[in-house]
Amino acid sequence: MITGRLIGVGVGPGDPELITVKAIKAIRSVPVVAYISANGRPSLARQIAAEHIGGSSKEIKVTLPMHPSPEVAQSAYDEGASRISAELEQGKDTAVLCEGDPLFYGSFGHLLGRLHGRYPAEIVPGVSSVMAAAAAAEQPLAFGAEGISVLPATMPENVLSARLETADTAVILKLGRHIEKVRTVLETLGLVDRAIYIERASTSGEKLVPLAELDSVETPYFSLILVTRQRR
Amino acid sequence: MITGRLIGVGVGPGDPELITVKAIKAIRSVPVVAYISANGRPSLARQIAAEHIGGSSKEIKVTLPMHPSPEVAQSAYDEGASRISAELEQGKDTAVLCEGDPLFYGSFGHLLGRLHGRYPAEIVPGVSSVMAAAAAAEQPLAFGAEGISVLPATMPENVLSARLETADTAVILKLGRHIEKVRTVLETLGLVDRAIYIERASTSGEKLVPLAELDSVETPYFSLILVTRQRR
């Protein structure tokens, strides 16, 4: 029996038109689609791709509870990988829908780590939230010999500060309840005036505001801060 | 007279199916498409998008000579911006086709800098070569609190070395004739065994090889090195 292929499909940052032709073809061609539903919310990736999922496709929802401990998260990925594996064993190609790009901080990496090597894998890269945020800000991420540092706000404060100090352009992800820590670090480094806050880029809920004018003390998961060292 | 819109359109990393629905719609809807032809080669962005360009569309080719001096490059962008501006003044929306993403090291940034504020602008983000390379390597770029450092090989050696030393995952772009410098830095840092060389990701000319096994002394522009600190 030939096993199915595991296909990680990036569906883009939110705007359903920012999906690629290749992703649409992959989603339409498979008998099984899987996706992750975290924090009790419906899967954004499924919402983005909804119009391309066939009515006869089987759907596998991998559920992560609110604020899971590492052990609970690992066990949810174990169970998800096992359910996907059962389909692959039956020769059914399975597309895992991923917001943005599958390998850019996606939960897909956790499933791939469990299934890689056992089944043929394919990745369909997608437009990430970073590119959508830069597009919303109409702000080049980098030119010439400048570097770009992608930094999760979940980093320890001293690490975040050291990395920001040497960054040309920085993109700070996963803000959530870390927004005040990030703001403090940027203030200390004198970078607040170069920082733009962008929420839900490319969607109808898109919000873009200079960090200095942001009054939130908690921000959604799909938000980021773009810091440019050079004025454009 | 209402001026036209300047639309920066990311057409993806090379595989014509890695273009987004939004990019296709933008290209089909405009009377004028522009693109950059560098180093005497045809525009890759135009090749990727070819099937979507209408027969009646006007095309503007902005030509950069081989290895232009900064002055020559600036003057080529000046002239390109001026030709695009002439179309926008006539109310014609103009799509600038960009490989990968328009704002990720693209020449589009140079045109945007010259036209921004004078005309309404829109950016259609695209799948970048970084995401395509990770997909080819089937290698997650980052998990959790790890950072990603995007580093052009054109950086001075000491800067490149310092940035690599603190990076979790590093993506080294613009290799060209800098490949030996990069190799030396990675050897000194003991990172060669974590480095994968990827050329023309997502295209029929895709090549993927551990850096330790690469024998080229010069590499094409569309190549990069992916270095992961953690074994996956």
Descriptive overview:
The structure is a homodimer of 232-residue chains. Chain A is of the alpha/beta class. Chain A has 7 helices and 10 strands. The longest helix of chain A is centred in the middle third of the chain and has 20 residues. Chain A is elongated, with a radius of gyration of 19 Å.
Overall mean pLDDT score of chain A? 94
Shape of chain A: elongated
Give me the secondary-structure category of chain A. Answer: alpha/beta
- The number of E-state strands of chain A comes to 10
Number of domains of chain A: 2
**Spans where pLDDT lies below 50 across 5 or more residues of chain A:** none
Please provide a brief summary of the model.
Two copies of one chain form a homodimer. By secondary structure, chain A is α/β, with parallel strands linked by helices.
Outline the secondary-structure elements:
2 copies of one chain form a homodimer.
Chain A: E1 6-10, H1 21-29, E2 32-38, H2 44-49, E3 58-64, H3 70-89, E4 94-98, H4 108-115, E5 121-124, H5 129-137, E6 148-152, H6 157-166, E7 169-173, H7 179-188, E8 195-199, E9 207-210, E10 223-228
Helix pairs in contact in A: 3-4, 6-7
Descriptors:
homodimer, about 230 residues, alpha/beta, Cobalt-precorrin-4 Transmethylase, domain 1, 2 domains, about 25% strand
